[in-house]
Amino acid sequence: MSSPEPLVGRVERLVAMRSFPGWSELPTRDLVTLAAIARPRRIGVGEQVFTEGQPIQTVLLVLEGELALSRGGKRLGLYRESSGVGGLAAFARDPRGYDCLATRDSVVLELHAEDLEELFEDRFPILLAVIRELARENVELRRRLPPSAGFPTRSSAGDQCPAQALDLVERIFFLRRTLAFGAGRIDSLAELAKGAEEIRAEPGRVVWKVGDRADDALAIVCGTLRCRTEDGLAFELGAGDLAGGLDALGQVPRWYSAEVGEGLVALSMGRDLTVDVWEDHPDLALEVLQAFAAGLLALLERAAEAPPPSFPTIP
Questions:
Q1: C-alpha angle 236-164-206 in degrees, rounded to nearest 5
Q2: Helix (H, G, I), strand (E, B) or coil at 216
Q3: pTM value?
């Protein structure tokens, strides 16, 4: 059993919220709202917080101490002050969950995932901040996954590139398939499709270099991009892949160079356009959150053989 709640007042909770990556730049009123639904909890060393095989329904923000995560007997990471635990499995709706053990006496703020998701629908800046942080963490983790950053080493170029520009219906159909959204998202996908710019490029063209500003993502209709990081990671992105989405949404510079392999046709979706559509259709943004959380959790499992890092995120 947990000990009685520690004394963590409203002001202390507000200060703590600002210390978590992704939330430091939120308006004070949003932080106040988050602090209001957070409940302090003390966890004794050796206490089992989550158990693998049981769905996770709460997010823990660590104020003091240390929590260790594992799945299938493999360590996923150690999480200390200004880290979060539980969010990835909860937001991904992953029924497997994971084991979480307190390796030190710890103090956390506990938030119910259901309360958070309701808040996300009402306060879009909070939801966007979480998506951005997951995108940044995804980039950082991929950069530590040789030889191909967690991507397949070779992707399909798809069918022969269309000779004519895609019409609106073709764009919607393609984005729906690529972004894996259901039929109920036609209106929001139509907004993305209308605002997207069709890009055509010949083999050998450099689309961007490492360090370039990341303002858009490329939904690849056909062709391939040869991608390489400064550390020597190499992979290809092809038909149906979304290139540059993580860095654009995470608002970080391009972390790999991209050169056209086979002739490319892609839809360029600007970050501002994408965010505006999400704000108008928060249900779409929640699906993106679920996909990002599931993807990052899968990457953590792939990295489980490496020395266990500490991730300042909301896993």
A1: 35
A2: strand
A3: 0.89
